[in-house]
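Re: the 123-residue chain
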Amino acid sequence: MSVVSEPGAPRREVGGLLVTGSALPGGVFVVRVVGEVDTATAATLVTGIDDALDRKPAVLVVDLSEVAFFGSVGISALIEADRRTKCPMRVVVTPAIRRILGIVGFDALLDLYDTLDEANAAA
C-alpha cells in the first residue's frame, strides 16, 4: 500500500512502515503512517514527526488510521512529540489504538479523532 504525498514532501519507509507528510490549507501538516509501529520502525515515525515540526505548522495531524500494529514505542513517540510541539497536535486513531491509549491513560493527554476529516475540522 502506498500513500500519495505532495512532491518534495517528506517520505520515509523502513521495515514495512511508511511515513509521508503533506501540507494542507491553513497551516495544517499531516503525517500519514501506514504499517506497523514497533521497536524496529519507531524511529521512522519519530523522524517523520520531527520533519513535520521543522516546518512549523499551525496544526500537526498524525494520521494513524492505517496502522495495523501500534506498540509501546509508538505511544512514547506520540507523547514525546506532543511535548515538543508548539502547535496543537491531533491524532487520528483506529478503535484498537484508541483502546490501547485508553488502557495506559494517554487518551486524556492527546487530542484523538476517528477520521482525518474530523481532525482537520476541529477548531
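The chain has four helices and six strands.
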